[in-house]
Design a protein that fits this description.
homodimer, mainly alpha, three-stranded antiparallel sheet, DNA-binding, DNA-binding (chains A, B), MarR family transcriptional regulator (chains A, B), WH_DNA-bd_sf (chains A, B)
Chain lengths: 153, 153
DNA sequence: TCACATTTAATTGTTCGCAATTGAATGTGC
DNA sequence: GCACATTCAATTGCGAACAATTAAATGTGA
């Protein structure tokens, strides 16, 4: 009985890797977002930063980094590009000169209205009910948090 | 009755975005993989390429790209680094001179044995049963494929 | 107070990821 | 057979992502 694959190799097969499922799904999302975000003049990570700021404004870089799991090496140049696009302002905190506070400009605030069209386009592209997506999201977040807990050890 | 958030803003809230769940889970996986892959001298995308090659060897760049959803702009420099690490060889196909065939070196083949320890470490880190992970993986792959179908339109 | 550790952003260097372009090889339609 | 389109990898340029380091501001203990 010839076999194409050895059973011992199963754990190393690409199609058996949940990490690749997640990795490739993230890229697929990125590609779906791209044309939508192009109209806003944003990249996907920039869009995430704007989501954070639309919820709360005038926050230090560190707070944004904690919410998005990104560090200053990623955020500093990204925020400078958002500043160059006149969407945010970067100012040193007067209370703690180490912190740089990120505030939305009027244009940054205004972009929120244009962004409202994005989530519904994504929902349509995922071709899935809201409840299914919410359930999946919660599972993935739970997995992510368990992984992050291991890293923190 | 004061509300912190408007209901109209719910679709734009970071915690409601499945894409962010996927995005941040991908990064969490990356961080868990890093110390494991450091021992193999591989980055995560390089590990994915090696997974493909351990299944089948002597394939054109295009085939690897189709399996991983990556293009030559990503793969060409990555494969050159794997070649510099003596894990693969790159040769022009004699039948079709446009194609570059990627073959494993003996060291590339040998690395597979060292890599067998990786999946079980990941399984432990995800703190989850195999059947749960398989179910999640299948859901995520189905979502990814629906997203990719939209892009292909 | 003063030495010392901690916190915070910024910087540097390496590796992805992709769009757009180039150039060579191949396939095709007439 | 020959113009033409197509295929494939390589290249270029830009924007992440992160490790490691730097530098300044702040906090802490003796």
């Amino acid at each position: 009985m010839p076999r194409k694959h050895s059973a011992a190799d199963a754990p190393l097969r690409l199609d058996n890797q949940i990490c690749f499922a997640v990795y490739s799904a993230a890229h697929a999302f990125n590609r779906v977002y791209k044309p939508l975000l192009d109209r806003l003049g944003l990249t996907y990570p920039q869009y995430l930063v704007m989501l954070v700021l639309w919820e709360r404004d005038d926050v230090p870089v560190k707070d944004i980094g904690e919410k998005l799991f990104l560090d200053s090496g990623t955020l500093t140049p990204l925020l400078k590009r958002l500043e160059a696009a006149h969407l945010v302002r970067r100012t040193r905190s007067s209370e703690d000169e180490r912190q740089v506070l990120i505030a939305l400009t009027p244009q940054g605030h205004a972009l929120k209205e244009k962004a409202r069209a994005v989530p519904q386009s994504i929902l349509a592209a995922s071709d899935c009910s809201v409840s299914e997506l919410v359930a999946m999201k919660d599972e993935i977040v739970a997995l992510r948090d368990r992984l992050n807990a291991v890293i923190g050890e």
